[in-house]
TrEMBL record:
Pfam families: Porphobil_deam, Porphobil_deamC
Protein name from the UniProt record: Porphobilinogen deaminase
Entry keywords, A to Z: Porphyrin biosynthesis, Transferase
Primary gene name: hemC
Lineage per the UniProt record: Bacteria, Bacillati, Actinomycetota, Actinomycetes, Micrococcales
Family annotation (InterPro entries): HemC, Porphobilin_deaminase_cofac_BS, Porphobilin_deaminase_N, Porphobilinogen_deaminase_C, Porphobilinogen_deaminase_C_sf
Organism annotation: Psychromicrobium lacuslunae
Length: 305
């Protein structure tokens, strides 16, 4: 029997239960969910001003280190890029849809929204790309869990932008009016992927089961995306989009850094034919350096760094 630490939101519990079920199936042992409250769940106020990186993960990591839990499931995009002493990512399961989704009243697409329409998001990255695409919309800062945000459509907003993966995991894909192409909106580094973290010294039976649910293509893609984010010295709420994909024998990484007001977007892409963790890391670093040479650092607000 292993204890899996999870945040208490419906999304967190659902994705944690899916991992628990997969591990039980491959490992032949029981996995029990243990709810851990994090600052990201307890505090209110704009997420982008809450101390940035790690608000959702610190408490889970403390529980891993003191042995209250054996493994923790994180949304990879919420995981800071800095290594956590004593811990390691033992599995990156196959990625769900990485795209952002528009959920709107009467199922309008972004181009069909009327001028002045109110679109909710708490993410500077999404806000910047919305403003770059449509200068005539009113972007409204929102937060709360997925159901709370969708509820605003019956209340004061014309549309909200959410991760397709999160909507899918809690069975709310029917709310999606448009899945954004990467030209319109690049997702957060790691979006749609999960990371399963364990402490050093964890049981071999657990790491073997975790290895069985690891997906190497997903791991390569998120390695490139996160290496870019780290080299930009930007946090998970910075206006940085990145998406990597294996295309045949090439790993291709697209990225953007945006002014939060949408007035400027630096967008570049790069590929490598090296299909290894090291090649993926170098791809992210090299693309970040090319974007820095284009002025990317000036667009990342200091408090989101
Ligand atoms: N920032 C919170 C968060 N962390 C992960 C997801 C969605 C699922 C994912 O990307 O894995 C969400 C909600 C959202 O951005 O709509």
């Amino acid at each position: 029997m292993f204890k899996l630490g999870t945040r208490g939101s419906k999304l967190a519990r659902t994705q944690s239960q899916q991992i628990a079920d997969q591990l039980s199936a491959v490992g032949g042992f029981d996995v029990e969910l243990v709810e851990i409250r994090t600052d990201g769940d307890v505090l209110t106020g704009p997420l982008s001003q809450m101390g940035g990186t790690g608000v959702f993960v610190t408490a889970l990591r403390a529980a891993l280190l003191d042995g209250r839990i054996d493994l923790a499931v994180h949304s990879l995009k919420d995981l800071p890029t800095a290594a956590a002493p004593g811990l390691l990512t033992a599995a990156v399961p196959i990625r769900a849809d990485a795209r952002d989704a528009l959920c709107s009243r009467s199922h309008r697409t972004l181009s069909e929204l009327p001028s002045g329409a109110k679109v909710g998001t708490g993410s500077p990255r999404r806000a910047a790309q919305l403003r770059a695409a449509r200068t005539d919309l009113e972007v409204v800062d929102i937060r709360g869990n997925v159901d709370t945000r969708l509820g605003r459509l019956e209340n004061d907003l014309d549309a909200v932008v959410l991760a397709a993966a999160g909507l899918g995991r809690i069975d709310r894909s029917a709310a999606v009016s448009e899945l954004f192409s990467s030209e319109l909106m690049l997702p957060a580094p790691g979006q749609g992927a999960l990371a399963v973290e364990v402490a050093h010294g964890t049981a071999a039976s657990l790491t073997a089961a975790l290895a069985a649910i690891d997906d190497s293509a997903t791991r390569l893609a998120v390695t490139a995306e996160r290496a870019l984010l780290a080299r930009l010295e930007a946090g998970c709420s910075a206006p940085v989009g990145a998406f990597a994909q294996l295309q045949g024998s090439l790993l291709r990484l697209e990225a953007c850094v945006c002014a939060v007001d949408g007035s400027r977007v630096i967008r570049q892409a790069k590929s490598t034919d090296g299909i290894t963790e090291v090649a993926a890391t170098l791809l992210g670093i090299e693309l970040a350096e090319a974007m820095l040479a284009d002025g990317a650092a000036e667009l990342i607000p200091a408090e989101l760094g």
